[in-house]
Amino acid sequence: MSYAPETPLVAASSNDEAEGGALVAAPDSTTNFADNADSRLWLEQNVLGLLSITRDDRMEQHAEWGKIRRMANLVKDDTQCYVGQSDAYLPVYKKALETKVSHISRGLFPTDTYLDCHSPDPQFELAVPGVKAWMMHQMERSAKIRSELKPFLRSLNNYGLGVAKVYWEKPINPIKSSRLTKLPGIEQMLYTYGAAQPWSTEGARFKARSVFSWYIWPTTVNSIEEASLVFEDIQVSKQYVDDMGKKGIWKNVDEINRNTNSDNQNSAIGEQAAEVGGSAQTAIDVRQGDLASWVIITECWLRMPVPAALYTANEQVGCPVPVKVIFSGGTLIEVRRNPFWHQKPPYVMHRLNEDTDSIYTVGMGRTMAGVQGLINDFINQTNDNGIYGLNPIVKVNPNLIVGNIEPLAPGRMMYLTDPAGMVFDRPPIEQMQYGIMITNQLITYANDMGGSPAVLQGSGAQGGAKTATGSQILQGNVKGELQDLIEDLELRVLMPAMDMIHSLGQQYESAERWLAISGGEKLQFKRDMLQGEFTWKWVASSQAVNQAQRASQSMQFLQAATNPAVMQLLQMQGKMVNPEPLLRRIYEDGLGQRNFDRVVTAMPTQPGMPPGMPPQPGQPPGGGGEPPGGAPRSAVEQAPGGTDQMVPGEGEDMMGVREGADDMAAMMGAQGGMNE
C-alpha cells in the first residue's frame, strides 16, 4: 500500500482552482478526531491488536539484536565459553565497526559541496543557487547531518537496518527579544533570539531512531512506501503529556491519568529492557515506580477512513487517506490527517544484504558475533598461559625445607636439605605462541567476514597478500564495495531526505536569512524561493571515485580545449571555451581544496567597458577616474595643480617624463627587478 497522496496536498489560495473553476482547499490536518466513535472503533478493530502482534513477532529478533548491541558495548554474553583467571575483551568488532562507519562517512562527505540541485523548468533555474544554499544551511546548521548520520550508519552495520526520522522542529514557547535584558549571565548567552529572527532554533532535523522501538508491518515489504503500518514507541514525560492535554493538542489525557495502562506499559518496558541484559521481569519490578513520571506513546502512520467533514471536494468520502495516530497503551489520544505536505511517514530507511521476503536482514553483527566470542576465549587462554609462565607454580616437599616457607620474591633465598625438594612448574612456551597465532588468524577472519576496509586488515587478509601490489588490490576491492554502499545510501536515504526537507521548508519555513552563495556573494532568502520543482542530488559518489585520476584527466582536457587551433575552430562555429566550471571541479573535487571563489575572482572593470575587460591606461581599478562628462582625464588634469589648459612645452615635458620612466622600468627589468 502506497503513501503517495492521491492529490497534491498544498496550501490553498485564491489562485488555486480545480477543473470547473472551483477552489480546492487543502485537507484539514489540524483537527484531532480521537473522540470520533467510528474512528475509535475502526482503530480498535484494525490497528490496536496489530501493534501487539507486530511487537510479539519481533521478540526473537530483539534477542539477537541485544547480543549485537552488547558486543558493540564490549559486554560479554552467552558466547563466552572459556572461564579462567583472565577476563579480557578484545574489541575487534568495535574497531571494525567504527572503521567502516568512518570510511562510509568520509565517502559521503568528500568535500564541502556534497549536494546539487537543478530544476527541469527554466523559470525556476534562476532560483537554484538560493535554494541550494538554503538546503546546505539546513543540512549543516539545523540537521547537523555529518554527526547525525553516524548513529544511523552504526545501526545499519550492526543490525543490517538503519532508520532515521526527518521532521521540522519549531520552538513551542520562543523567548522574545524584550526578555533578553532580564536574563542574567549564562541564560542571556543561551537564548540569543533577536527581534528580526524570533525562530532562530527552528529548522529541519535528521535523527537516527532505535530499531528496538521502530516497527513496520507487514515484514515482507522492501520499503516504507510499501508498508501498511509504520509505528514507533517513544518515551515521554508525564509532564509533557499533561501539557499537550492542556493545549488541546491531545485528547483523552484524563483517561491516561486514571489508568496508567500498566499491562501495556510493562510489556513495552520489559521488551526493551530484555535486550540490554538481565531478566525482563526484573527490569519491570525495578522500574515499576517510574510509570508515575513517564509513559510510552506509540506514534503510528497508516491509511484509514476519516470523518466525512475532513475530505476535500475532490476526494471520495470513505476512501483511506494517510493519517497520524498516537496511542498511549490502549488509550487513543490523537488521530489526524497526515500533517505533512509530502504525505509520507517521516522516516527514511536502508538495509544491508537485502532480501525480498523480509524487511530484516543481516549486518556485521551477526557475521562477526561467533568469531568475536572465539577471539575472547583464545586471548584469555593465552593470557592465562602468560600469567602461569610469569608466576610459576612451586612444588615443595615440606620435609626437605629448613624453616617456614617464604613467599616467592626476586632474589629471595630458600634453604633446603635437598635441592629436589622444590620444583618450579611452567607451561611450554609454545602454548603462548600458538595462542597468539590463533588469535591473529581469527582477527583476520573477523575482518574479512565483517567487510571492514583493507586499511584495517593490512596486507595479510584474503590469503595473505605480502606485496605492495597485492595490498593495493585488496584495498581497491574493498573501496568498490564501499562505493556501492555509498551510492545506495545516496539513492535511498539522502536524496529522499532532501526531498522531504524541501517539502517541509515549503510548509513550515518562516525565517528570512542571508545565505552565502558561490562567489562570496550574499543572498537574502525567503520561503517563496522554495516554491518550484527542484531535483536534488547527492554528489558524493561521483566525487569519491578516483579523484586524482579525474583531476589529471580534467587538466588534460583543459589543455586540449585551450589550444589556439581548437579555440579558433570553436570561434568559427560561434562558440567559446569557459574554463571556470572545469577549474572549479578540479580545485574542489580533484584537489580537495576550498574557497575557489576567493582564489579565482572577477576582474575589476571601468564604467562603459564590458565586464571582464581590464582598465585602460591611466584609469584606476574599478573605473573611478571618469569625470561626470564621461571623458578620460588627461595627464595635465591628473598632475598636482593641473589645469584644463596645457601651457606651451608642458606636453613635451610630460612625454619626456614618461619616456624616462619607461627606460628606468626596462633597466630594472634587465636587472631582475632589483635596484642595486
Helical percentage: 40-55%
Structural class by secondary-structure content: alpha+beta
Q: Characterize the overall form.
A: flat
Strand order of the largest sheet: 4-5-6-7-8
Q: Approximately what portion of the residues adopt beta-strand conformation?
A: 5-15%
- Low-pLDDT stretches: 1-24, 174-199, 261-266, 275-290, 455-465, 621-632, 670-676
User: What is the C-alpha radius of gyration, as a whole number of Å?
Assistant: 36 Å
Q: CA-to-CA gap between the ends? A: 86 Å
Count the helices. How many?
Answer: 22
Biggest beta-sheet profile = 5 strands, antiparallel
SS elements, strand count? 14
Arithmetic mean pLDDT: 75
